[in-house]
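Tutorial sheet, problem 5. The six components below are modelled jointly, 548 residues in total.
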Amino acid sequence: MIAHVNFKSGVPVYLQIVQQVKAAAASGSLRTGDALPSVRVLAEELRINRNTAARAYAELEAEGVIETRQGAGCFLKANGTSPLRKAVRSERLAEELDAVIIQAHHLQISDTELTALLAERLEAFRERQGLNGSSRP
Amino acid sequence: MIAHVNFKSGVPVYLQIVQQVKAAAASGSLRTGDALPSVRVLAEELRINRNTAARAYAELEAEGVIETRQGAGCFLKANGTSPLRKAVRSERLAEELDAVIIQAHHLQISDTELTALLAERLEAFRERQGLNGSSRP
Amino acid sequence: MIAHVNFKSGVPVYLQIVQQVKAAAASGSLRTGDALPSVRVLAEELRINRNTAARAYAELEAEGVIETRQGAGCFLKANGTSPLRKAVRSERLAEELDAVIIQAHHLQISDTELTALLAERLEAFRERQGLNGSSRP
Amino acid sequence: MIAHVNFKSGVPVYLQIVQQVKAAAASGSLRTGDALPSVRVLAEELRINRNTAARAYAELEAEGVIETRQGAGCFLKANGTSPLRKAVRSERLAEELDAVIIQAHHLQISDTELTALLAERLEAFRERQGLNGSSRP
DNA sequence: GTGGTCTAGACCACC
DNA sequence: GTGGTCTAGACCACG
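Model answer (C-alpha cells):
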C-alpha cells in the first residue's frame, strides 16, 4: 500500500497522494525506476475514482518526480531533475518555513529550539534514508 | 500576526485560521480573555475576504474556542484544557518540519541551505514582529 | 471569443485552448491583468465540459501564463515569470525546432531558406505585437 | 530518419508519422517507388512500439499513399498529385515556425537565442544525417 | 457569481 | 493490460 488517504482532513485527496509518494521517494522506500501501482489499482486500493488517482500521478509527473509512459505505467524518476529555477525552489520552501515559524510562535517554541529541532529531524531523515538504501530484497 | 495562510496548500483558508488559533490557545500563547483582531482587521492582514475571516471566527465560536461580544469583539474563552506539555508541542512541530524536509529533498535544497533559509526567515519574522508592535507585557 | 476548438484534429481540446491563449498573450491581444472568460462561460462558448475548460486554465496556471484567484477568476500574468530553469526551457524549444527541421527536410526546404523564414516570421510577430500594444480601446 | 515524433504534443504518434510521410510525399522528398523503412526498423529508430509503427503504415496503406508488398517491404505509390509549389510548402512551415515563436516568447527566449538555437539544431541534424548514410543518389 | 475537487462512466492510444 | 481525455453532474470554498 503506497498511500492512505483521509477524506475528512480537507486536504484534496490527489494532493495527499502526491505528498505521500514524495515522502516515499525522499525517504528511499521508493527508488529510481521503481514502478508505481497502476492508476486503476491505486484507485481500487484507496477506493477513489480512477480520475483522482490519475490526477495525482499527473501532478507528480509535472513536478518531475515520476515519469509516465503510455501503456507501460508510472516510474520513479531519478532525483536531481527538478525543472524549476533555483530562486523559485527557494521561494517555495521559504513559504513553507514561514508557516512553520508562525506555528512555532503559537506553540511558544523559541528560535533556538526550532533550529535544534530542524537539525534533529534532518538527522533522523538521513538515517531513515540510509536504512532504506542498504536493505532491499 | 495571528495567523499565516497558504493559498496553495489545498487546506481551506478558514480552516487554516481555525487550526492556528487553536494551536495558539493550546500552547498558551493566547490566553483566556485575550482579544482577537476584528474580522475586518484580520481580513486585511491576511489579504483574505471578510466572509472568510468571519467564517473562521464562526467556526471557532461554534466549537466554543472563542466568544464574540457584540460591539466589543472576539475573545478567547477559558478552554478548560491545560496548556500542552513541551514534548507534545515539539512533536507537532516535528511533523511539520518533516514535511518541509521532504519538500526540500525534492526541490534539491541541501541540509545546509535549508538551515540557512530557516535562519533567514526567522530573522525576517522577528523584524516584522518588531514593526507591528511589541509582545505581550 | 478567445478560442476555437477542432474536435477532429486529434489534439486534446484542453491543449488547443492552452495554445490559443498562449498565442493571444504572446501577440499582445491579451494583456497583463486582463481577465479571461470564466470557466463556465468558456465551456459554454466552446460547447465543451466545464471540467475541460478548467483543465486548460489549470495547465496555463502551472506554466505561469495566468493566475487564478479563487472566487474571482483567471487573469493574465505579466510575462517574464517562467519558473523553469533556462536549460530546461532551451531544451523544450530545441525539441520543437527539431520537429520543424525534419518537416523542412521533408518539404525540401534548405537550411538557408528555413533560417530566412524564421527571420521573416519573427519580424511579422514583432510587428503584430507592436500593433496590439498601441491600439486598445 | 523518415520522421520525428513528439510524445508530449498530444497528437497520437501514429498520426504524426502519417502526416510526415504524407508531407514528404507531397513535397517530392519521397518519390514513387521509394522504399520506406520496415516496421521493425522504423519502430527502433523512433523508439516506439512496433504496433504503433505498423498502425501508421496501415493507415497510410488504407489512404492509398503506400503499398506493402509481402516480404519485400513498403513502397510509396504514385500519388497522382503534383508536388506542392514552393510557396505552399513555405506557408506550411511558416505555421509551425509561428507556433515555435509563441512558445519561445513564453519561455522567455530572445529572438537572437532562438535563431542561434535553430542554427545549432540544424548542425546537429546534418551531423546525424551524415552518420546514418548518404542522401539520395 | 467565481474556481476546485470528486465521482461515474465512456472512448481512445499505446504496450 | 497501461495511461489520457472527455462528459455529466454533484458539492465545496471563496468573493
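Marking note: Residues 66 and 76 of chain A are 4 Å apart (CA to CA). Full credit if you identified this.
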